[in-house]
Amino acid sequence: MRLAYEDRGAGKPAFVFVHGWTCNRSFFAPQAEYFARRHRVVSVDLRGHGDSDKPQGEYSIATYADDLAYLIGQLGLGKVIAVGHSMGGITVLQLAAAHPDCVAAIVMVDPAPFVRPPELRQAAETMIAAIEAGNQEPRRQFITERLFLPTSDRKLVEDVLAVMLAAPPHVAASAMRGILAFDGVAAAARCRVPALHLAATPPLNPPHQMAEWLPGVVQGWTVGAGHFNQLEVPEQVNAMIEGFLRHYV
């Protein structure tokens, strides 16, 4: 199993950046460039994504976290600041819960929902069925209508769509099943490291609920950006991560 990653910069604690569903390591490019000035930074393509291997089979959040723990150990990174977006957000939560020896703190950038109401689960299962049937339209509509604001830059929307729609159908479907199967509340109960939640507009996890699930969580909320807030307003995201690191880690 080959995992692709970029390794740059120097300084502790090291950062590990973890992208979301059907994305790749470039989705944290603004943060990797910024923090590599003072820290070692590793940006990874999760299995099934980017330049990493794309085997058939299950794509669970626990498997992603185990892959990250292995990579952190192999690279000798020590305890890292694990930063994840969307699916990557719940992956770094699982990493902290299952491999606390690898993690100094986590940053969840608009993480995938910890709890999924029946209507959201049904919509996701309908999209999975469409993906497996070769119909991209529900996935396209989900990305453009649910993950961006009307004011979002149209070129960014098209660039994101191009990457996400190019993901192999077996990966897209299995990874979404992995998201649906993940128990975020249970993982949060096992998390003992400092945690930052950066909500987008609208947030996938309401901050008041996040505070119930993860007592002591530090809350941030970007202004003027949808789900991909690390790309839409990178200066806000970078500043809040930096403040979190300075005051809580």
Structure, described:
47% of the residues lie in helices and 14% in strands. The protein is an alpha/beta fold. It has a 7-stranded mixed β-sheet, with helices on both faces. It has a single domain (5-248), classed as Rossmann fold (3-Layer(aba) Sandwich). Helix 2 crosses helix 3 and helix 4 (118-132) packs antiparallel against helix 7. Helix 3 links the parallel strand 4 and strand 5. It contains 11 helices and 7 strands.
Helix/strand layout:
Blueprint: E1 5-8, E2 15-18, H1 29-35, E3 41-44, H2 61-75, E4 80-85, H3 87-98, E5 103-109, H4 118-132, H5 137-146, H6 154-165, H7 169-181, H8 184-189, E6 195-199, H9 207-213, E7 218-221, H10 229-232, H11 234-248
Parallel strand pairs: 2-3, 2-4, 4-5, 5-6, 6-7
Antiparallel strand pairs: 1-3
Helix pairs in contact: 2-3, 4-7
